[in-house]
Amino acid sequence: MIAEGVENEEKWLAAGIAGLQQNAFYMHRALDSNNLRDALKYSAQMLSELRTSKLSPHKYYELYMRAFDELRKLEMFFKEEARRGCSIIDLYELVQHAGNILPRLYLLCTVGSVYIKSKEAPAKDVLKDLVEMCRGIQHPVRGLFLRSYLSQVSRDKLPDIGSEYEGDADTVVDAVEFVLQNFTEMNKLWVRMQHQGPAREKEKREKERSELRDLVGKNLHVLSQIEGVDLDMYKDTVLPRVVNCKDEIAQFYLMDCIIQVFPDEYHLQTLEILLGACPQLQPSVDIKTVLSRLMERLSNYAASSAEVLPEFLQVEAFSKLNNAIGKSRGFYDALSLRLSLLKCCFPVKSFPYPNLYKFQVIEAQVDMPIFGAVTLYSSLLTFTLHVHPDRLDYADQVLGACVKKLSSKGKLDDSKATKQIVALLSAPLEKYNDIVTALKLSNYPRVMEYLDLETNKIMATVIIQSIMKNNTHISTADKVEALFELMTGLIKDLDGAEEEVDEDDFKDEQNSVARLIQMLYNDDQEQMFQIICTVKKHIMTGGPRRLPFTVPPLVFSSLKLVRRLQGSQDQEENPFADESSTSPKKIFQLLNQTIEALLIVPAPELALRLYLQCAEAANDCDLEPVAYEFFTQAYILYEEEVSDSKAQVTALHLIIGTLQRMHVFGVENRDTLTHKATGYSAKLLKKPDQCRAVYSCAHLFWVDDQDNMKDGERVLICLKRALRIANAAQQMSNAARGNTGSVSLFVEILNKYLYFYEKGNPQITVAAIQSLIELITTEMQSDNSASDPGADAFLASTLRYLQFQKQKGGAIGEKYEAIKV
């Protein structure tokens, strides 16, 4: 049925275009031969095609545009005729003899345009005659397009100030009256469309009206371009005529047009009238969009220049908007009661307090969804931040009103509303570029309470991004407490909620929290310790999934404070220091508790690394018992929790590397820890791993900058043990694969021999090095040796190093001279 209607409409349009083109052809021929009567005859027949009622507005527009193009050519002909001496007044009367009224009026408008341009009659008289004549067409679609044509041909011929058609002192009034009268008549036609036809086609008619609304709105654009329309005329003449409409579609569109086309300063000065009109709009009108766009324009106007801000203060713009939008429910209830009592005594038209109507914007929209209300509050807050950036109490007042509106709804489940809440909460961050300022708003966290978990996370991420972007300095424990309360959705699961979260998204969220922790800083050591304690309190509630991300930055932030304390040496210089004051010992106690939390994850490798970092910091503070305790915890983790062979290798090398840098231990404690490390090395699963760990242990007995930690004999023992393990690895390879495998382990051990030989270890002799070189050479030449280009290159590089050392001459050259390559 619908397809058949569309097909028929296409046929009707094609027939109309064909008839129009045919008559246009004859009209052109008449124009070329300067035959005025035939030109008028065929132009009238051409315009008769516009009398159709079968086309939808969209299709009618196609036909109209073709006719419009032809009328422009006819207008040029009329101008030429007037230039050749033809009386334009006679022509104006002649076209009125056309048989049908619609072609007659189109021709009349066309000749009228030329008539005004000839200046043979005042423009206001011709325009008044034309706008009155057009009342002869009352069909909505045909009448709208006719009046649109009139508006189009007359827009550059209005008797405006400075125009060539300007007349007497009231010329601007005449121009405005013409446009307003044409607008009013078009609006009536537009509204009439809604009430024609059966009720079942209501949606179709509304769609058609939507397609035609720009024809009506163009009049307002023309009005806004008239130079003589000043604020007083706009306020007293234009605005009351435009807003005086009861149709819901027209109300929304016309209010939106007014906001878009007229200057911002006009809106500011007539704010009370606009707000007074809002509660009188039909309940179905999208008032939130109207007011939001109004506030958006005013916000941009305020942001354009600081010089315009006094205008906002003068008209008390915030107070008026806040009264219209931001008041609480209790306010409205009380106000409604007072209004009811007053209206009992006064008829509406003589009501003595008309301004009170403006307070009923939200009340008038009883079915306004929460999304609409939040949108209004978001726009009002943006307006407030632009106009009154120094008045945080105003911004907090808006947020408080939003909280009261949300209090009856509980957690929001409307995605549109939550999106607007994010926009609302992001506005202070974007304006001040400082979360610290936003934290001063007492209602800011209260609004966040109404967000669901996912949106809470989004908002928390926005806050963190703002802090990162602006490098915001958060320097007190109270501010950190408030900040972490806002970011609850990222730090812990809300209300035990279990949600399926994408692993990559989760990592990004937690990494952002980790970066935030690193940015919390205060020069005062006591304050910094309080910040650390506050962060610890919050992240400990994060659960096993979050701790591996949040504990490390807290540990390293604490270690920075330890080194600051150790550098200042306040504790040593002040024997009367308060026991409650911050000290490295107190921080290490907190760190021990913090790292223990990783065991429930479990994350033993991470915990082991952090224990070793803490041990190294305790070493710098000369706290031997603390350092020993951290090493003990690391060893316990290695023995009981680290079971993967690769993880064991990595952890053991970390232990050896950290222990080698420790200088705080006494002989007994160091021997104990060193013995344990060498024992672990010999127990690794793979022989190559054993070999590398054992020769690494040799460094534990020879520390360059500490004379009391140079035991050459034990170094040699480690290296010989490593050789035995490497030899055993070759034998196992020969038994399993039929070849002795690579000699890379022997080359590595050779490099260790050379290192300790160069450092002056008396137990490392030339003979031992020479013997090892010969062993490697023999193994590489053996038939059972597997080819290994990496090992060959490593050996060649080592031998080149020996040659280089020999060539240096002096003591170093003499030292290496005995080694034969």
UniProtKB/TrEMBL annotation:
Keyword Ribonucleoprotein: no
Localisation: Cytoplasm; Endosome membrane; Golgi apparatus, trans-Golgi network membrane; Prevacuolar compartment membrane
Any GO BP: intracellular protein transport
Range of residues in the leader sequence: none
Keyword Membrane: yes
Keywords for this protein: Cytoplasm, Endosome, Golgi apparatus, Membrane, Protein transport, Transport
Matching Pfam families: Vps35 (PF03635)
Function: Plays a role in vesicular protein sorting.
Family: Belongs to the VPS35 family.
Record-given protein name: Vacuolar protein sorting-associated protein 35
